Amino acid sequence: VALHSDEAVNGAGFLLSFVCGGPPVGTPAPPALGDAYTLKEDDGLRVASALGSIASGYAPEYPSDTDASITIVGGNCRLAWTKFDLEESEGCEWDYVTVTSGAFSKRYCGKSMPEALQLSGGEFTVALHSDARVEGAGFALNYACDEETPEPVPVTAEPTPEPVPVTAEPTPEPVPV
């Protein structure tokens, strides 16, 4: 793996993880580097974090009658799910995870791994809701955020001043001491 960068723009870079001779495909990925949050312990938390993981935090199943959330403040963020097993329901009305960022809000439920997300709202919230009946193993996701790109500032051109002529004055002769 090689990374080449010019001097023009800086970004957060990338995160690559792999395992040689590790568990079979389909096994949940190891947690991301960075901060690790569980909705069980960090309910309602609002933190500034550029890299980490969020999980439902319960084993073997998340509990019934649960409402927990966490908000990550971090600029433009990429989310990738590594585990997903919630109660299936049409319209995700019983157990679900909601991801919200700015005007974007989506509920996820069931056993299918959701698609990765690119969020640009400056922060995002992950919330877990469960009803009183069936539970699943829960969810886990990794995230990586970079700083928001500031709005470009217009550059106004100042008129270039007219060149000033330079005149050469004669150099005085050295005076003996």
Q: Give the overall pLDDT as a whole number.
A: 78
Low-confidence stretches: 17-31, 149-157
| Coarse morphology | rod-shaped
Tell me the strand percentage band: 35-45%
Largest sheet: 8 strands, mixed
Radius of gyration over alpha carbons?
Answer: 27 Å
- Helix and strand sequence: EEEEEEEE
DSSP helical segment count = 0
Overall SS class: mainly beta
Distance between the termini: 71 Å
Number of strands: 8
Q: What proportion of the residues is helical, as a percent range?
A: under 10%
Topology:
Blueprint lengths: L34 E4 L6 E4 L2 E5 L10 E20 L10 E6 L2 E5 L8 E14 L7 E9 L31
Parallel strand pairs: 1-3, 2-4
Antiparallel strand pairs: 3-8, 4-7, 4-8, 5-6, 5-7
